[in-house]
Amino acid sequence: MSFPFDAILFDCDGVLVDSEVVGLEDAAAYLSGHGFAWTTEDFIRRFSGMRYDRFAAGLREAYGQILGRDADEREFEELIDGLIETRRAKRHTMTLVTGTEDLLRMVQGLPGVRIAVASSSGQAFLDDKIDRYGLRPVFGQHVYSADHVSHGKPAPDIFLFAATRLGVAAERCLVIEDSAHGVAAGVAAEATVWGFTGGGHCLPDHAEALIDAGAERVFATHEQLTDEFTNLLSRREAAT
Ligand SMILES: [Mg+2]
C-alpha cells in the first residue's frame, strides 16, 4: 500500500502561522469607528482566508452602502491604509500555531511525499512570515503566494500551481486549510482537503463550515494531524 498522497499543500495563515487572529479586534473596532456595524466575528466570517483584492472589493462595497454612494478613490484608500496599519501594529503578537514544528518534522520524514506552502498572502508578506519563523529550510523554493496566480482562493489556481511546481497531480495532493474559501479552492482543484480549526480565529461552528465547504475531515490541533500521519505511515509500513 502506498502513502495516500504524493504531496501536502499547506495554507499559511491560520494553519502554520497564527496570523489571522492578529489585530482582529482592533480592526473591527477601527471599522466600527467608520460606521461599520461588524463584530470581530462578522469580520472573520466575511474575509478570513480571502486574497487581498477580493477582501478590498468586499470592503469597498460595504463602505459604499454606509456612505450611501460609491466611496471615492482617496477615501477608500484612507480607510484601507488605516485598517492595514491597525493590524500591522499588532504583528509582534503573531506566533506559529501550536505544534507546527512537530507536524512539519513529521511530514518531512514521509517517504515520497513533497510539501509546499500555498497561500492567499502576497509574496513579500508570505516570505517575511516563512523566514521569521524559520520555515524556509522546510519548504525551500516551494512557497507559493497569491502573486503567482490570477485568481485567488476560492478559485483552485494556487493549489494547481503548487501541484504543478512539485510535479504532482492535484488529485494526489492533500490540502490543509483553515478557511472555507481555502477548502473550496482545494476541492475545486480536485485535491483531498482536510480542514484545520486550531488557529486562534476559529469560531465554534468553524468545523461545520469547513465540512460544508467540502473538507473530508477536520482536525482541531496539529497534534491530531501529526498522529494521523503517523498512523497512515505505520499502516503503509505494515502493508509492505
Ligand atoms: Mg488560512
Automatic annotation (TrEMBL):
Cofactor(s) this protein requires: Mg(2+)
Keyword rRNA processing: no
InterPro entries hit by this protein: Beta-PGM-like (IPR051600), HAD-like_sf (IPR036412), HAD-SF_hydro_IA (IPR006439), HAD_sf (IPR023214), PGP-like_dom2 (IPR023198)
Coiled coil: none
Tagged with keyword Transcription regulation: no
Pfam families: Hydrolase
Keywords: Magnesium, Metal-binding
GO molecular function terms noted in the UniProt entry: catalytic activity; metal ion binding
Transmembrane regions: none
Domain of life, source organism: Bacteria
Family classification: Belongs to the HAD-like hydrolase superfamily. CbbY/CbbZ/Gph/YieH family.
Protein known as: Beta-phosphoglucomutase-like phosphatase (HAD superfamily)
Lineage, opening ranks: Bacteria, Pseudomonadati, Pseudomonadota, Alphaproteobacteria, Parvularculales
